[in-house]
Sequence to fold (255 residues):
Amino acid sequence: MDTQQQKYERGVYCLDDIPKHLRKHFRPAQASWDFFGVAWQLKRVLKPGGVIVWVVADATKDGSETGSSFEQAMHFKRLGLNLLDTMIWNKPPAGANGNNDAYPQSAEFMFVVTKGKPKTSNRLADRVNKSAGTSRAGTSGGRAEKYGSKDTGRIVQIGDMGLRTNVWDLGLASQQAAEDKSDHPAPFPFDLARDHVATWSNPGDLVLDPFSGSGTTAKAAKKLGRRFLGLEINPEYCAIAERRIAQQVLELEAV
Fold:
């Protein structure tokens, strides 16, 4: 990798700051953005075993949801990628989203798309087990035997914590810690970016955010020891991201 390309391996950049030989291969969102072009480019640069996390919610037009979220998920499949998981970001309700006959909206989809089997899957185990401290007969396990599990003769102790489900209860960005807030009008919560980065990558891996905004994903990647590349077309958001990323992460030693 030449020096010029190494310069753009870490950081958040406005499109016009990126050399033409890199810029021509990946054009992020514009005023009227091309989802199909972005999806193709993401598929092109994704390494085998790599993961795309696509967070999206439907708009409502003329009393009907557009369904564009599922259209986008299916398009990733048509490109030859796997839809590993359809996750839900459960957040505080924010009105009926254009249709007062519908229930208040409190969820967005988080489609986890992979190129083949994911290289990394550090699933988070932070869900409190209601049956912690009890025991049960061990089974041969597996989804296929969910309703007909076989007793293996083992006794399994139920631990305090279990795997998190694919429904993540996270607040809005406006409700997070002061150091994680930004001046962007519609940022994702830092915890959402951090937990996905932690789940689907390892320290030293490269994280790409083609809609970097105020740098929430980049900040999470830096905090977790990942390399990152963020693309953004708004110079004001680039400046915000640069300031947030420049904040030093201090590791406190136990005493």
